[in-house]
Design goal:
Blueprint (H helix, E strand, L loop, with lengths): L21 H11 L5 E2 L14 H9 L14 H13 L10 E4 L1 H11 L7 E6 L3 H9 L3 E6 L10 H7 L4 E7 L11 H14 L2 E5 L15 H5 L4 E6 L12 E6 L2 H17 L11 H6 L5 H4 L4 H15 L3 E2 L8 E2 L2 E2 L10 H12 L1 E2 L1 E2 L11 E4 L4 H27 L1
Parallel strand pairs: 1-12, 3-4, 3-5, 5-6, 6-7
Antiparallel strand pairs: 2-8, 7-8, 9-11, 10-14, 13-14
Helix pairs in contact: 1-13, 4-5, 12-14, 13-14
Length: about 425
């Protein structure tokens, strides 16, 4: 008798994460065959020559002897005190460190925050495009994503009226990603205030992903959500991965602000889930306090002439030269989200086909826009982490692929 196949969870049929999916596996196969592939699919600073600041690694080294045991399930007290001080400096209503949770990256904390919140069929309002972990965590925790549009025509900003129209009896939370991944949009204060008002009217939890808070260009403003929310329940997420270029440390944190009466049961649920996974990795937690109290190491990279700023400029110049592309200039984060202009190719443009052709024909890896839960996408995401010359080279490869696609379609029409 033949053994039966082990079937995966049905939840996974709806989950996508193309950032590390089939295209990334194809890229690894090309590399195994001896090909060089320029990967612009992941915001992973260490792969592009960036290093975590020395005062962070020094703090970890100095405390290795103090890191053998589990720590408190919510994180080291000194780390949580530093996070609390940061939140207080921004006027967030976080009364004490019992509202601070340290995790193995923000990814883990997103999952815990939704697991503590959702029952079967509950709905979470998410941006489209979104960072796909938010959709995946919603689905895997028995929730239903509902998407509010953030189109390029509005500078990738949402319309609060459209958000409110999605609110229903099963809606539990509104997710914001600011500065935004994948678009680079920074949300104006007045827009955030309107979204807070929606959460107040419908008794919703606000979930604000602010992992890119200090990565901004051209003096783009950043307004943290928790101070605007005041006594309304709000979870704010941040960490070391991006601003401090320490992805491999796997350290993120979440702060729960708002009225104690409204969030007490939810806070206790979060603590239970944190305890079930024992604690976040201890050595890297020692880097939190120096990261939040030490020198600013990101502004020189985002200021005019800095490496990230120059990479962003290379994207702008490359798009301006292109026959096919357009792009809302990113105001923050580590990505650009260009699109193939309507009319530049056929209306049935397939962003996955384009990305595969770019990978196979030009050995450059980008992420199709549809991977960010954006239907009928003509977009793709690239990271700003490579050297500006590499970015210009990738756009030259992109142009060649699009030229070939146009030629092939023309040949089919003529035939």
């Amino acid at each position: 008798m033949r053994a039966s196949t082990i079937q995966p969870s049905l939840h996974l049929a709806e989950v996508r994460y193309e950032i590390r999916g089939a295209l990334a596996r194809r890229a690894r196969a090309l590399e195994a065959a001896g090909e060089d592939v320029l990967k612009l699919n992941i915001g992973n600073p260490g792969k592009f020559g960036f290093r975590a600041p020395a005062h962070l690694t020094a703090a970890i080294t100095a405390h290795l002897a103090d890191s053998d045991a589990y720590c408190h399930e919510q994180g080291l007290e000194s780390a949580r005190e530093a996070i609390l001080a940061r939140q207080h400096s921004r006027a967030a209503a976080v009364p004490g460190i019992e509202r601070i949770f340290v995790g193995n990256g923000v990814s883990e904390l997103i999952d815990l925050s939704l697991r503590a919140l959702l029952n079967v069929g509950d709905e979470v309002l998410l941006p489209a495009p979104d960072y796909p972990l938010w959709s995946a965590a919603t689905i895997l925790n028995d929730g239903t994503p509902r998407y509010y549009a953030c189109p390029a025509g509005r500078g990738h900003l949402p319309d609060p009226d459209e958000i409110e129209a999605l609110c229903g009896p099963r809606t539990r939370a509104i997710v914001l990603i600011n500065p935004n991944n994948p678009t680079g949009a920074c949300y104006p204060r007045v827009l955030l205030e309107r979204i807070v008002a929606i959460a107040a009217r419908h008794h919703l939890l606000l979930l604000s992903d602010e992992i890119y808070d200090d990565i901004r260009y051209d003096d783009a403003p950043f307004t943290p959500l928790a101070p605007l929310a005041g006594e309304l329940p709000c979870m704010t997420f941040a960490g070391l991965s991006k601003v401090h270029r320490a992805c491999g440390f796997r350290i993120g944190w979440a702060s729960l602000s708002g009225s104690g009466e409204r969030v007490e049961a939810y806070r206790d649920a979060l603590q239970l889930l944190a305890a079930l996974r024992l604690c976040a990795n201890v050595p890297a937690q020692w880097a939190i306090e120096p990261a939040l109290t030490g020198p600013d190491t990101i502004s020189a990279l985002t200021a005019p002439g800095g490496r990230l700023s120059e990479a962003r400029r290379a994207v702008q110049e490359s798009v301006a030269r292109s026959r096919f592309l357009e792009c809302v200039v990113p105001q923050g984060a580590l990505y650009a989200f260009p699109a193939v202009r309507a009319g530049a190719l056929t209306d049935d443009f397939d962003d996955n086909e384009f990305a595969l052709r770019l990978l196979d024909g030009e050995h450059a890896l980008v992420v199709p826009g549809s991977s960010f839960n954006l239907p009928a996408s003509r977009h793709f995401r690239i990271t700003l982490l490579p050297e500006p010359a590499q970015i210009a080279d990738v756009f030259a490869r992109i142009e060649r692929v699009l030229e070939r696609m146009v030629e092939e379609r023309h040949a089919v029409r003529v035939a």
